[in-house]
């Protein structure tokens, strides 16, 4: 069930191969050995008034003027705006996607695994990518040299352009479009599973603009997000997933657990974000009061999770944490290099399925 303003109820499941409405655009026909140099991470325009406004038509789709990147390190200089940035075109070749020693790109002999658009075994989070996925991701990073925006795929109403997919390359920072499109894949997979087993969904996903609106202009504003949940008592859900950005500098995941009265924070750089968690606890109390639910003491807990090894992968880890937790899997010691998970996320987005 999709709630007003971007909240979506879903069911706890590990089911795979469920595709949302995805519109693939024609390939530009370029060789996979040609490419576009990944752009330097960039700072983009501030949210428009429509961002996270709670439109009932669809709210996971970010406004087209707001394509901000999400670096993991705050020490970097502020990035130029998208309008002023010029993309230089060079060859990236096979080094664009780097795998750690021992990881392979070949599809094992046997079966029809190469037919899958993502991995040999979708249920395995570390399964080798198929040749089809390898080719698709290589082709996706090839773009025109004139800087013209190229939409490669549309996940529901969220268009992903060439510049978005370039951010899935190593050393780049995920933006709202990538994270919200991935949330869309998660919600469609889960909501279809819930429908197939005729169970009431237990999970809710908010897009990246929920927390932005809740704390807009540096102050707590419950009324700014009240419309998002006015038609549903979201605190009856098992968990509420909320990807959060810290001053356009870092992604981390917050998970509201209503039954326990707890806000869990999963931060891949191990930084304390309790002040942001307290805002979510305050929101939960307001939400309970508005729906006549019993009062509860809320706590904010920083949870253990896998730590990233560089300054660029916070968006990757946030997406993977949501994906793993939505299947009931642990997020403390999941394996695989960040390069592998970046390319798998790119393949999943291109295919429109998890």
UniProtKB/TrEMBL annotation:
Alphabetical UniProt keywords: Hydrolase, Protease, Thiol protease
Entries under InterPro entries matching the protein: Papain-like_cys_pep_sf (IPR038765), Peptidase_C48_C (IPR003653)
Keyword Protease in annotation: yes
GO MF annotation, one: deSUMOylase activity
Pfam families assigned to the protein according to its UniProt record, in alphabetical order: Peptidase_C48 (PF02902)
Annotated region described as Disordered, given as residue ranges: 1-97
Classification via PROSITE patterns: ULP_PROTEASE (PS50600)
Highest taxon listed in the record's lineage: Eukaryota
UniProt biased composition (Basic residues): 65-89
Any one Gene Ontology cellular component term annotated for this protein: nucleus
Entry's Gene Ontology BP terms: protein desumoylation; proteolysis
Biased composition (Low complexity): 42-60
Residue stretches making up the Ubiquitin-like protease family profile domain: 158-325
Keyword Metal-binding: no
Similarity section: Belongs to the peptidase C48 family.
PANTHER family, sorted: SENTRIN/SUMO-SPECIFIC PROTEASE, UBIQUITIN-LIKE-SPECIFIC PROTEASE 1A
Name listed for the protein in its UniProt record: Ubiquitin-like protease family profile domain-containing protein
Source organism of the structure: Porphyra umbilicalis (Purple laver)
Lineage: Eukaryota, Rhodophyta, Bangiophyceae, Bangiales, Bangiaceae
